[in-house]
Amino acid sequence: MSKKRKLPGGVDVVKVGDKIISLDGYLSKKSKPATKEEASTSTDTAQPAPSTTGSNGTGNEAKQKERDGTSKPLAKKPLNPSRWQKPRGTSGDGSGEYLKSRRELPLWNYQDEIRRVLRERDVLVVVGETGSGKSTQVPQFLYCEDWCQRRKVEVDDKEVFVGGMIAITQPRRVAATTLAYRVSREMGTPLNAQKNGGDSGSPALGNHQRGLVGYSVRFDHQVPRGTRVKFVTEGMLLQDLLRDPNLRQYSAIIIDEIHERSVDVDLLSGFLKQVLSGDKAGRGGVPLKVIIMSATADIGGIRRFFSDARDEETAIPSGESETESTHSGVEVLKIEGRQYPVDIIYSPKAVPDLQEALLKTIFKIHLHEPLPGDILAFLTGQEEIESVQKLIEEYAATLASNMPKVKVFPLFGQLSIEAQHEAFKPVKAAFTRKIVLATNIAETSVTVPGIRYVVDCGKAKVKEFRSRLGMESLLAKAISKSSATQRAGRAGRESAGKCYRLYTEETFDGLQPTDLPEILRNDVLGAVLTMKARGIDDVLSFPLMDRPSIESLEKALIHLHFLGAISGDGTITEMGRKMAFFPVSAPLGRVLLAAADPRYDCVLEVIDIIACITAGDDIFHQLQTEEVKEEVEEYRKELYRREGDLLTYLTTMQHYAAENSDRVGWCRQRRINVRNMRQAMNIRRQLRGLCMREKMLAEAPPPDPQPFAPIPPSQAETVVKCFMKGFALKTAMLAPDSSYITAHGKHVVAIHPSSVLHGQKKEAIMFLDHVFTQKNYAKKVSVIQANWIAEAFEED
DNA sequence: GAGCACTGC
């Protein structure tokens, strides 16, 4: 019958930074070589090729690969020793132990081709499926190339150095840091893991040592002297661009995971395209190489975008079958991945009740499929996960005693790190199947080990910005084909698996091929300010892979003008430059600048509040049961302020900073998110430093801990007025029928239940967030006076 | 009476 699960003991997941990462096949030398995908963030499996039978490609494609012998991670390929050259410049010792696993990566055999293409041209697109090793190997293949060496050139009659380093961008911090550790070991100059002492120490700088590999993410920089390969977050490279529009320290930029299409990666792509097609005078004639890497083959638009950036005449016909050269001249290299086959099982007809279908499917798997083999179900949100968990547990209790048991784990972003951790551990009890109920967090951000069955409800909650209404919505929508493929792939990471789709094949065929890029879903206010601050005068003609509507760009320009970031003719103002320089949103940047105005003079208070509201989701955990609520509210009482949420955050930060013995215990007692509070302290320290440098603070703030002293009401009023400088458009007045009507747009809004002002009626309110979910909600709310609204619209 | 996921010199 079923035997006890055999899993690597204890070390298959590890916490790095804020994230829990599967290290399966990463630490153990005898298991398959790790790639970034396996180590942390996974990426899409390739888009299925259009199939004439209409069936989904994942299974077929994987089966094809199995026949080719390429889908088995442990399959030994005949190795050709002449293909292997040890990279020059490595110390040798460290890389040797990784060599064997590196040589087994699908990408290994493409290294000559990759080098050849980049010697001849400036742009290369690499499509590498999960496990191809592209993120770890491509920079190693390139850094010894002649074009990748630093050289002295003349720019504007001055001698400067250009190039020498490769930057490789990642959408997430955790991916950037784990990849850097991995590659530094492979290259024989390991980075020292430094424990950044939470919120008490200063950020690790770690540039005392020498080495070839480094990383740079917010609050955490490890860039050894002599670094040639630097892993960075996308936002970090954008910030580099602010100081150095020509990216002079780099010989190449590798954009990884471009298929995720964050706003930052879209902006970076635009700037890189400009550098590629510019005259290179700012780089002393030294070209910048750009390598675009995607996990999905659906990159037509991306390739077209970069094709236009280069000279048509240099197009070189490709002799290799693996590379595609088109008339437009950008070569695309496709690398097979390593994925076990996954059978796709569609629902034969549309399901009327998703929850019922989900329960039936889960128990069908549980009662008919052998152990071991855990189940991962994709749902839309916390509420749904919790109700399904209850139903599963109730039904499981009725099963006969000779049936396998189940253990259910919820998995969503707002869960504490400990609770998330539970979902990654193998279940200890014998004869038990693990069922993980997850949001989209399990699609890209984390990898749950042991999964053999995936159940996909076909939906996900997405945030969208309605520029016409000036508000966001967060609603469940149908996922894309790419997303469905990615979800299915989660069943085939350790062995062959099955994916049950709770929708029909026809429904799948009708899905959008890819998700809407973020730049088409978000407020473009920040993106436009980013462009303006980097010298883009005409934002309407800035090259973007997907262009937001003119209307939304215009709305953003008007908003920026209102905030004082651009002048009447659209040029950036001094204030706008400063706003772009701060790592906060444009309206919050405006608030920070107002706080430094002698009329307000509350920089430290505003920093404390901004730190709390930008440290992730709400620092206050929601209170589930009445008992917990009663107990916790007693402790929280001293934090809550009648003026609203902003002053409540300030009071919380001040109490937290004053607490010097047991901050974790202090947070636990008040059900405050420890992780976010630490992050808030990091942000607070960073913003204080920036404000000192910008001379917005006359003197250095007193060191913690300072005794807690409540802010007097008059000063509290000043702080709220300061926020009005950034959020005057997000205000509402109480109507005779007791509803709140927004000043701008005249919509009805309700105060969100998470607000301390929920259920209260005040003359007027200001709020920082405006989101439609169940209702039109105002979040992060403060009490204001009606006449402040008019005041805030007055010119300085 | 309610909470998709990331991220910033």
Automatic annotation (TrEMBL):
Residues 115-315 form the Helicase ATP-binding domain. Pfam families: HA2_C, Helicase_C, OB_NTP_bind, WHD_HA2. Residues 40-61 have a biased composition (Polar residues). Keywords: ATP-binding, Helicase, Hydrolase, Nucleotide-binding. It is an enzyme of class 3 (hydrolase). GO terms for molecular function: ATP binding; double-stranded RNA binding; hydrolase activity; RNA helicase activity. InterPro entries: DEAD-box_helicase_OB_fold, DNA/RNA_helicase_DEAH_CS, HA2_WH, Helicase-assoc_dom, Helicase_ATP-bd, Helicase_C-like, P-loop_NTPase. Residues 353-535 form the Helicase C-terminal domain. This is RNA helicase. PANTHER family: ATP-DEPENDENT RNA HELICASE (PTHR18934), ATP-DEPENDENT RNA HELICASE DHX33 (PTHR18934:SF118). The keyword Hydrolase applies. Residues 24-98 are annotated as: Disordered. One of its GO terms (biological process) is positive regulation of transcription by RNA polymerase I. Its EC number is 3.6.4.13. It catalyses: ATP + H2O = ADP + phosphate + H(+). One of its GO terms (cellular component) is ribonucleoprotein complex.
